[in-house]
Design a protein that fits this description.
Layout lengths: L33 H29 L3 E4 L4 E5 L6 E6 L8 E5 L4 E2 L10 E4 L2 E9 L5 E6 L6 E6 L3 H35 L20
Antiparallel strand pairs: 1-9, 2-8, 3-7, 3-9, 4-5, 4-8, 6-7
Helix pairs in contact: 1-2
Length: about 220
């Protein structure tokens, strides 16, 4: 049996280009840039709400509704009726709680009570301590304070421990929750934006053999 001789130049060379492989799976599209705005907005909203809650919590404790001179004469004042009021006097003044309070709507004297603790605050006029706690009744009061070294007394909302603690808790919790959600949104959006594909689909590149002019 005769056999064909091997080719004089060995095996034919491989083609000048490799066969096209399978197309790569499409990448997930990038999220909208508005998600960055949402995340940042949640963080800013948390900060703003926290500041507002803190101011609201302290406002009831530091707000002064009336100032009464200690001159022995009656002075008509108006205060809120949403809770007990407190009479504040300068710290260290003798006979500092010597005031008569009368409800002008009923012409009855208001019976004060002890403050039930130690309360103090400071403002531009000095250091003040809580002296008496009383029910404001109609809110239309007549206050007469005997002369004293302090010169004047202040009336404001009586501090409520439950409300104060709740306000501080909300001041910490609400910004923490909103800021945490905003931070998670920013992180997730950043990762998806960095690893995702363009939002607008790109035209698929067609294979063009070497040496052939594009159409």
């Amino acid at each position: 049996m005769s056999q064909y001789p091997p080719p004089p130049y060995g095996a034919p060379p491989p083609p000048p280009y490799g066969a096209p492989g399978p197309p790569s799976p499409p990448r997930r599209r990038r999220p909208s840039g508005w998600w960055f705005v949402v995340g940042g907005g949640l963080i800013l909203a948390g900060i703003a709400i926290g500041v507002g809650l803190f101011v609201w919590t302290l406002k009831g404790f530091l707000d002064t509704e009336a100032t009464v001179p200690a001159d022995g004469r009656p002075h008509a004042v108006s205060v809120g009726t949403d809770g007990d009021r407190m009479l504040w006097g300068h710290d260290g003044v003798p006979n500092r709680a010597d005031c008569l309070i009368r409800d002008r709507a009923t012409a009855r004297n208001v019976v004060p009570a002890p403050v039930g603790g130690s309360f103090s605050r400071s403002d531009s006029s000095g250091h003040w301590v809580g002296l008496l706690r009383f029910d404001p009744g109609s809110g239309r009061l007549e206050v007469t304070c005997t002369p004293s070294a302090g010169g004047e007394f202040q009336i404001g909302a009586a501090p409520d421990i439950g409300t104060f603690v709740g306000g501080i808790f909300a001041t910490v919790l609400v910004p923490l929750v909103l800021g945490g959600i905003g931070l998670v949104v920013l992180i997730v959006t950043g990762v998806l934006f960095a690893t995702g594909g363009p939002r607008r689909p790109q035209p698929a590149a067609s294979y063009q053999p070497p040496g052939q002019e594009p159409r």
